[in-house]
């Protein structure tokens, strides 16, 4: 009864919920989160890069699938795949056990208090290595067939001297640490073996057979988008790619140039096309989902390059750096925000709301930027990020009076939650207060209601004609 009462109160107080991306890969129970979101009466999602890579897997991308399994192995979250979604990974486990030995660089990253046996850790280690090499092979194939993506510098398997175990990156030579590539042909490193071809087909079939996963991806597709204009505010998970001077960064595809809102519309169109035809592989739309994960002009990634290979195999940490798009510097300037809002056909009095990059509040970083015109709401809901942020996430509250940003305290123990209420302590700060209260008619829902009223009045006045 108490639970039902609490749920009723929540439904009455929360009219609509926005989720600004990255439901997946941020903790052990994304499936439970999506089940809860499905039960919400009014909700939308702005896709994050981690959501997209799961969507790409169900769209038929073996490359995305390898990435999903690799990340789940890295953070000890295979239960999501095997138990929550019922995906049989046995063929991959047998393959990894056959070809790989544990390597320190691939030790799983566990959260504080989480324990796995040495045998379990070794298995996750081997799975990471196996999926990483398969990922690099498949990525090499994609790079070759998609010159428009300009990912040539990430074709890492072709830059390796396999005899010396050294790699050449941007004119510099680096030794490879603990590099195992037992299934790579140095002459054709991108080539899959017959065994690997069969393995990938089996795994992809197992993913597609999960009805629960399909239900969740269908929900993300139905309720999600690359961005959302809502009540005068622009919600984008990551960024809008910019040049250093603030101009919108162009992405050229098949002879056409796209930037700003047009670029995000292009990406969304291809996301929907890809998932509409999951049996078609290596098509442009499905490959673009991978680009959204790693591409320099991706609004979801927002960096120059993803250095997965370097982090695993090169000890020089300078190679691990992923340079951010200038957007993350320029979003501190109100002029930048106004220019972006104008590009989306929105009033410059609005706000941009981002997720993607955790705000390191304990180091003094502010989530409210550009004089209150941009708010970053990624504050570390996921436990692994709470050491960086110092808090347990943000919730942005919006009502007729304006906006407030609530910063939440980390959950410690059930006892502390019951006795001290430590899990419900929130520090609120005012983001924006309107001079006149916003009326329902001025909101997105209000506009829909007005349109419905107009339609009903028209039908009432003309019912005899019909």
TrEMBL record:
Native species: Lactococcus garvieae TRF1
> Which Gene Ontology biological process is one annotated for this entry?
gluconeogenesis
Q: What is its EC number?
A: 3.1.3.11
Q: Does the keyword rRNA-binding apply?
A: no
In its UniProt entry, what is this protein called? Fructose-1,6-bisphosphatase
Q: Which GO terms describe its molecular function?
A: fructose 1,6-bisphosphate 1-phosphatase activity
SUPFAM superfamilies from the UniProt entry: Metallo-dependent phosphatases
The entry's keywords: Carbohydrate metabolism, Hydrolase, Manganese
Q: Does the keyword Glycosyltransferase apply?
A: no
EC class (word) = hydrolase
